[in-house]
């Protein structure tokens, strides 16, 4: 894990050089998930022709982009790089995805004879990382096989106000917890049964929205859900966070989430937003 920590620290200076002193690896990943893309800059050495400098800067940007991508958290125990090692077909597909990076800027400095090149990869949407690793996210490799799907107790009571059965979306308030955005954040009940993970999301929605959205503001969470057609989101505070990326909710909230989803189908549409501190 040390190598991934070092990679993430390098991303801070690559992606946000003007404010690197105030950034953290967590801030960097949150910005990636909020913006929906990974961006990296390569800077060549000085004393080169325009063509040489631009080519060298692009190669460095490609390397930095790969490091940023591989360092992204897949789930509570796996980075993208770890996950790719499990599947030769997906690894080959991701290599092709990396070759599709879009140039988002370039500049040659004649006084220094050096250059900068910016490259970008989309995390969500058509041709994105989510579309590329969709088979991985939909397989059992993102969660232990022992984790069963949630089923309500026969005697379960009606949902409480915080998670009304009339909800058409979900806000998970983790502002007072140590939580990290990931490509596959999950929601469990107290028995460890799965309420929400990539396998529960319609493939087209998983590509478009990932496992929901992330923000640090409750009003922004409601506004984001509104753009997804959600007018009455439920709000839940988990009992705890496990592995930094997965949340555990109470039995009452699990019942409420399940009942609301049965009526509105919001989990399958990834109408879920995590509000972080």
Short note summarizing the structure:
With 277 residues, the chain is α/β, with parallel strands linked by helices.
What does it look like?
- With 277 residues, this protein is α/β, with parallel strands linked by helices.
- The protein has two domains: 2-136, no CATH class; 160-275, no CATH class.
- Helices cover 38% and strands 21% of the residues.
- The protein is built from ten helices and 13 strands.
- A four-stranded parallel sheet has the order 9-13-6-10, with helices on both faces.
- The radius of gyration is 20 Å and the shape is elongated.
Features:
277 residues; alpha/beta; four-stranded parallel β-sheet; four-stranded mixed β-sheet; 38% helix
What is the topology?
Elements: H1 2-15, H2 25-35, E1 37-43, H3 50-71, E2 73-75, E3 78-79, H4 80-84, H5 88-99, E4 102-109, E5 114-122, H6 129-132, H7 134-138, E6 169-173, E7 186-188, E8 194-196, H8 203-209, E9 213-215, H9 218-227, E10 233-236, E11 240-242, E12 246-248, H10 251-264, E13 272-275
Parallel strand pairs: 6-10, 6-13, 7-12, 9-13
Antiparallel strand pairs: 1-5, 2-3, 4-5, 7-8, 11-12
Helix pairs in contact: 1-3
């Amino acid at each position: 894990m040390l190598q991934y920590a070092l990679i993430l620290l390098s991303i801070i200076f690559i992606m946000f050089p003007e404010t690197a002193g105030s950034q953290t690896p967590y801030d960097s990943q949150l910005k990636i998930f909020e913006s929906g893309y990974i961006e990296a800059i390569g800077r060549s050495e000085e004393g080169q022709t325009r063509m040489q400098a631009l080519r060298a800067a692009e190669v460095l940007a490609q390397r930095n982009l790969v490091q940023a991508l591989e360092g992204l958290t897949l789930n509570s125990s796996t980075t993208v790089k770890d996950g790719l090692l499990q599947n030769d077909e997906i690894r080959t597909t991701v290599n092709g995805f990396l070759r599709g990076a879009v140039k988002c800027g370039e500049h040659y400095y004649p006084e220094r004879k050096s250059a900068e090149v910016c490259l970008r990869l989309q995390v969500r949407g058509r041709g994105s990382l989510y579309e590329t690793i969709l088979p991985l996210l939909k397989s059992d490799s993102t969660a232990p096989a022992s984790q069963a799907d949630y089923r309500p107790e026969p005697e379960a009571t009606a949902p409480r106000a915080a998670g009304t059965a009339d909800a058409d979306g979900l806000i998970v308030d983790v502002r007072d917890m140590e939580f990290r955005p990931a490509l596959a954040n999950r929601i469990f009940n107290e028995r460890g049964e799965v309420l929400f993970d990539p396998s529960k999301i319609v493939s087209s929605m998983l590509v478009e929205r990932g496992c929901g959205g992330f923000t640090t503001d409750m009003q922004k969470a409601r506004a984001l859900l509104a753009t997804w057609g959600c007018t009455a989101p439920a709000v839940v505070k988990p009992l705890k966070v496990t592995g930094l990326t997965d949340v555990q909710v109470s039995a009452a909230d699990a019942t409420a989430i399940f009942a609301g989803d049965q009526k509105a189908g919001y989990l399958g549409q990834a109408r879920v937003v995590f509000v972080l501190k």
